[in-house]
Design goal:
Layout (H helix, E strand, L loop, with lengths): L3 E11 L8 E12 L4 E5 L6 H8 L7 E6 L2 E2 L9 H6 E4 L11 H11 L6 H11 L15 H13 L5 E5 L7 H16 L3 E5 L3 H7 L2 E6 L2 E6 L9
Parallel strand pairs: 3-8, 3-9, 6-7, 7-8
Antiparallel strand pairs: 1-2, 1-4, 4-5, 9-10
Helix pairs in contact: 3-4, 4-5
Bound molecules: adenosine-5'-diphosphate and magnesium ion.
Length: about 240
């Protein structure tokens, strides 16, 4: 059980123009607490800071200002052997696909399972997870043999492997057709009803509007809306 929280979190990047020494804030003054079991959509146009916020929440990057917490413990303290706490807490699907191209889907999942300390149970867990995302037969395929939508679902399966309490999903629905988006949202809803926290960056406005969950809206790196039972475009 893990509440996750950002407190005045900011992340800056150097400009690609080497002469430009100013810091460019990808996000700033992010304040949000997400309790165990919440379902949150993270929305905003391209470049608004959604991916950066997800990475800060999951401890993939550290904030330049402010802090990220799991249950009131600063994530910055989870380094070295303590890092296992992050791996146990989060199932992550990044915006860019991360599958190893020269390994089969099953091998990819086993690598991920081992990284999470799963040994003999990894294969059974991988088969179960592939079943959950509706792709029970793809274990022997290579990533290039699957459609982009199937690859995204395999990545969701990988995130689900060790049944983490929190899922951080970045544009998972971007390359899926509507029917598949429904299937995925149905699965996420079911996991959520059993207590899994879901934080999902998405552009799929019609689905956000039907689901009526918490909606956090980012504009230019700042939270401009955080609404329970929200809709796309709610700013409060
Ligand atoms: P979103 O996911 O909403 O599209 P991002 O979090 O990816 O937004 O990006 C927010 C801002 O930070 C953008 O202006 C982007 O160009 C910048 N940014 C993100 N990651 C990097 C990086 N690794 N290096 C430089 N700038 C970055
Ligand atoms: Mg993004």
């Amino acid at each position: 059980m893990s509440a996750i929280r950002l407190e005045n979190a900011a992340k800056a990047y150097k400009s690609e123009d080497k002469k430009d020494k100013r810091k460019h804030f990808a996000v700033r003054e992010l304040n949000a607490t997400i309790e165990q079991g919440e379902f949150v959509f993270l929305i905003g146009s391209s470049g608004a800071g959604k991916s950066t916020m997800l990475k800060l929440l999951g401890g993939e990057i550290s904030p330049d200002e402010g802090a990220a917490y799991i249950d009131d413990v600063n994530i910055a303290r989870y380094f070295g052997p303590w890092k296992a706490r992050l791996t146990r807490t989060f199932g992550i699907v990044g915006q860019q696909t991360m599958l190893i191209r020269k390994r089969t889907i099953m091998e990819n999942l086993l690598v991920a399972g081992r990284a999470r300390g799963m040994q003999r149970k990894a294969r059974a867990a991988a088969e179960k997870a592939l079943g959950l995302v509706g792709l029970p037969g793809v274990g022997d395929c290579y990533p290039a043999e699957l459609s982009i939508g199937e690859v995204r679902r395999v990545e969701l399966a990988r995130a689900l492997l060790s049944s983490p309490p929190v899922l951080l999903l970045d544009e998972l629905t971007a390359n899926l057709d509507d029917d598949t988006i429904w299937d995925v949202l149905h699965l996420l809803n079911e996991l959520n009803s059993k207590g899994t926290t879901i934080v999902m960056a998405t552009h799929a406005s019609q689905f956000v509007n039907i689901m009526r969950r918490r909606v956090i809206t980012l504009v230019d790196g700042r939270i401009v809306g955080d609404v329970k039972n929200g809709k796309y475009g709610d700013i409060v």
